[in-house]
Specification:
elongated, 8% strand, mainly alpha
Length: 106
């Protein structure tokens, strides 16, 4: 996987999965299978690992997967650790931004 910062990747498209893509996702899910895990398959996104199947975690996984797919940094499987790490970094960045803005105002 190469990191290119100056090219604009094509955004993920809304489309139906082809049978080959679904079969490949099934093979990957069977290779990674853990007890109680749920894997969501969305076109042009990495395989989403949703351990307990909650809708909020699924939504967070999809948001992070779309962001990483647009940056060409998408891994093959996106698990909760990556999502929580990404959310923590975003909250930390937001905290510093708010602190900076408050320092300018006061």
């Amino acid at each position: 996987m190469s990191l290119t910062l100056f090219t604009t990747p094509t955004p993920p498209q809304k489309r139906a999965l082809r049978k080959e893509e679904l079969g490949q996702a099934l093979v990957e899910a069977l290779a990674l299978d853990r007890n109680g895990a749920t894997y969501a398959v969305v076109p042009d996104l990495p395989l989403l690992d949703v351990p307990n199947g909650t809708r909020i975690l699924m939504l967070a996984n999809m948001v992070v997967a779309k962001l990483l797919a647009r940056l060409n940094l998408a891994p093959t499987v996106l698990g909760p650790r990556t999502v929580f790490g990404f959310a923590f970094a975003a909250m930390l960045l937001l905290l510093y931004l708010v602190q900076f803005l408050l320092a300018l105002v006061f």
